[in-house]
Predict the structure.
Amino acid sequence: MQFNDLGLDQRLISKLNHLAFYKPTEIQQAAIPVGILGKDVLASSKTGSGKTLAFLLPAMQRMYRCKPFTRRDPRVLVLTPTRELAKQVFAQLKTLNAGTPYDGALIVGGENFNDQVKALRKDPMFVIATPGRLADHLEHRSTHLDGLEMLILDEADRMLDLGFEAQLRRIHEAANHRRRQTLMFSATLDHADVVSIASDMLNAPKRISVGHSAEAHTDIAQRFMLCDHLDHKQALLDKLLETEDYDQMIIFTATRADTDRLTTLLNERKLKAVALSGEMNQTQRNNIMSQFERDCHKILVTTDVASRGLDISKVSHVINFDMPKHAEEYVHRIGRTGRAGNKGDAISLVGPKDWKSFKNVEAFLQQSIEFTTLEGLEGKFKGLKPAPKKKFVKKKPGPKVQAPKSDKPAADKPKKKMDKRFYDNMAVGDNVFVPKKRKPETPSADEE
Ligand code: ADP
Ligand code: MG
């Protein structure tokens, strides 16, 4: 199938040819025809499968083919969970709208608010934004969404995990009219919060699911190594850095403190490593990302702030120095490599502290994982045994004591908590996915 077969405008086809995109990816084949018909879409597909063009092309087509509802308001709004991802979508948009009057503005947290007010005053047709900052502009009345034609949510599940539900609903309310088209992309469509927000924001959407997001990613070679303790992890990492033939590498750690510590250590060894964390100010974040993209640094050490969406073609290796807390995040982290048909390597270090997360990942991927070792660095840790089930011992009947009568009605008594182990197993267990309501993470000073 060619882009020609999807009903796209010839002007877009020639742009795509110019960009050396000749064949639509699977998600593009499925989503573009529905998108250009003006229907709502709820879609999920693997990392690196070309979702950005799957929503930007129908949006551009609308610019070419349809009259605006109003003259002033943005026509297309794209929301993403992180500023870095918003920038990347914006960059992709620029490759499509260059030389057209369909200009765009990038509205993310951490940048000067007044500059953004000025940019919005120029009535851009596209706005690419993080939800927190866009909601602030609505509050401030620097933009209005009454004329919005297309609302696009990229990585919707992540936006919800970061605690942006209120902002998303606020934005939806500001653009809540019958003729609005909504496209929602999410790594998973089963996430309880996604189901709920999708049913409120989408109108009879076409559901598209191209492969499971946890599906074995054949372009990414995944390896897992057991480690005894932090020093052992460090030794394994050193060896990997010595022996692996990498182009650029992203190392994920659990916390910002680990990120800093590891970066300092790598720099002491004269390796070109740089740290990125959500707590940095925006100028720093921008500089780091643009330097990394320009290959000034070989290694980016980061937390999950960089796990979603980023597309840097030279990343050949992803290392999980610590396992991610949520199993889906594993799929996103390793998805920073093996993009657009390239090959990639993902190596995860699993110590006693990572064991529970590792088991969650194993269950999520629905495969039994074998460990590999590095010569001379084999450890002792072989995994933790599942906690033994407590035996129920029947108590001998003692002398009967009359229980004091509670004056509280039974309904007010605190509910007995469900055994946590049981709950965890249930959520990731055998093919049965029980939508799990998650506590929102703090938006890591991100995208306010
Ligand atoms: P996703 O959002 O699904 O993770 P992206 O939209 O970031 O994926 O795209 C991943 C990479 O694939 C990008 O570098 C993009 O330029 C490239 N790409 C997208 N569509 C195509 C296509 N039809 N042919 C070749 N490369 C493509
Ligand atoms: Mg993406």
